[in-house]
């Protein structure tokens, strides 16, 4: 096929107005697979490649979504009045493999890497603030000691010397500067606020960007259990919910002390996601005792609660069936009863609409 040089997207509205954006297309090192071509569009001010290494591939660009996760964690911690606002996320195949928040960036990276010892290798790392020399030195030493490498590093600016120090030891590292994306809206802008994919038969499938977060919406967390969460458990519930949002459905994220302990997504049922996350934690000798576990949709039956209890979870975050059209509320009554028997906490996140009424809040990610 002929090489495309430009793509134009025109959106016409029902009031007769229209918007148009033109993307200059540049070829990528590879598409989704080596036998597929790939291109990246340049619609004006966005992120920029500082060092290209061996060149960005299709999935490298997709994994920059980790920067959105890092910023959301950072802003949520600030919203909670917690000074651990330095967030680090390492994505693998569009899912966070590890993340953590601390008062210092290098500490967030160090503690995040104490959980999954395998997945972060060759990952796409994003930090929520300017990349520091301390963090660069940590990575240099980790590379020398363990041959640890990243594929891509993404940050809103870099302290002097960071780029040269890292590119010297990680020869294929691609370094991305996202300083231009200085607002939450710019990070999650999409095409006119929309996210577009393609399905079979050349059909576009379009949805609104999911830019809803704790810090920019009216929301609440209803305590459904008899036991109320501690302040620490409530903060972990917030961060676990972000983890569930960032991981491909069906997702489960286990968080304690603002660290992602284990996760699993992309399974055909969320119970398997919880089970596989538990197996991964056991492989790396990571205890889930006292953790908050969040899933992107409601839990169907008590077996899932039994599993979470065996894993050591004390706080469960899920939207339940309240305000939803799927299923009956009766299973939720049994689930709540079992939660109380185990002296666990169960929390339901919800949104508040412009009319002041509660709205269901689910965080499916199917893309």
Question: What attributes characterize this protein structure?
Answer:
367 residues; alpha+beta; Cytidine Deaminase, domain 2; 7-stranded mixed β-sheet; 6-stranded mixed β-sheet; 10 helices; 18 strands; 29% helix
Reading off the top of the CATH hierarchy, the class of the largest domain is best stated as Alpha Beta
Question: How many individual β-strands?
Answer: 18
Topology order in helix (H) and strand (E) letters: EEEEHHEEHEHEHEHEEEHEEHEHEHEE
The quaternary state of the protein chains shown equals: single chain
Helix-and-strand structural type: alpha+beta
Instruction: Report the end-to-end length measured between terminal Cα atoms.
Output: 27 Å
Helix content: 25-40%
- Let me know the largest β-sheet: 7 strands, mixed
CATH superfamily of the largest domain: AICAR transformylase, duplication domain
Spans of at least 5 consecutive residues whose pLDDT stays below 50 are none
**CATH fold call of the largest domain:** Cytidine Deaminase, domain 2
Mean pLDDT: 95
* Amount of beta strand: 25-35%
The domain tally reads 2
What does this structure look like?
29% of the residues lie in helices and 27% in strands. It is α+β, with helices and mostly antiparallel strands and 367 residues long. It folds into 2 domains: 1-196, Cytidine Deaminase, domain 2 (3-Layer(aba) Sandwich); 217-360, 3-Layer(aba) Sandwich (Cytidine Deaminase, domain 2), CATH 3.40.140.20. Helix 9 links the parallel strand 15 (292-295) and strand 16. The two termini are 27 Å apart. The model has no long low-confidence stretch (mean pLDDT 95).
């Amino acid at each position: 096929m002929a090489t495309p040089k430009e793509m134009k997207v025109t959106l016409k509205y029902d009031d007769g107005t229209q918007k148009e954006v033109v993307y200059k297309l540049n070829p990528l090192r590879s598409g989704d697979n080596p036998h597929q071509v790939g291109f990246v569009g340049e619609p004006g001010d966005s992120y920029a490649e500082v060092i290209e290494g061996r060149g960005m591939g299709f999935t490298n660009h997709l994994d920059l979504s980790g920067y959105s996760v890092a910023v959301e964690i950072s802003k949520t911690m600030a919203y909670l009045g917690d000074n651990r606002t330095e967030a680090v996320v390492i994505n693998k195949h569009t899912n966070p493999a590890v993340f953590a928040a601390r008062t210092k960036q290098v500490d967030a990276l160090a503690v995040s890497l104490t959980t999954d010892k395998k997945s972060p290798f060759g990952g796409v790392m994003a930090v929520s603030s300017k990349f520091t020399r301390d963090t660069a030195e940590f990575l240099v030493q980790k590379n020398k000691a363990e041959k640890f490498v990243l594929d891509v590093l993404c940050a809103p600016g870099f302290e002097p010397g960071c780029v040269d120090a890292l590119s010297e030891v990680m020869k294929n590292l691609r370094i991305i500067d996202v300083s231009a994306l200085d607002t939450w809206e710019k990070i999650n802008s999409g095409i006119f606020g929309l996210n577009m994919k393609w399905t079979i038969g050349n059909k576009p499938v379009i949805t609104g960007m999911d830019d809803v977060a704790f810090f920019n919406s009216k929301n609440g967390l209803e305590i459904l259990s008899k036991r109320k969460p501690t302040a620490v458990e409530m903060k972990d519930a917030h961060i676990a919910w972000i983890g569930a949002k960032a991981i491909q459905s069906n997702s489960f994220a286990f968080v304690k002390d603002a660290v992602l302990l284990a996760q699993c997504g992309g399974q055909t049922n969320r119970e398997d996601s919880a089970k596989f996350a538990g197996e991964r934690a056991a492989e790396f000798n990571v205890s889930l005792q006292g953790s908050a576990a969040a899933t992107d949709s409601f839990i169907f039956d008590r077996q899932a609660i039994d599993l979470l209890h065996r894993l050591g979870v004390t706080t469960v975050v899920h939207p339940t069936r309240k305000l939803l059209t799927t299923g009956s509320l009766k299973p939720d009554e049994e689930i709540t009863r079992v939660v109380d028997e185990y002296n666990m906490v169960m929390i339901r996140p919800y949104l508040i609409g412009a009319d002041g009424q509660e709205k269901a809040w689910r965080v499916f990610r199917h893309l």
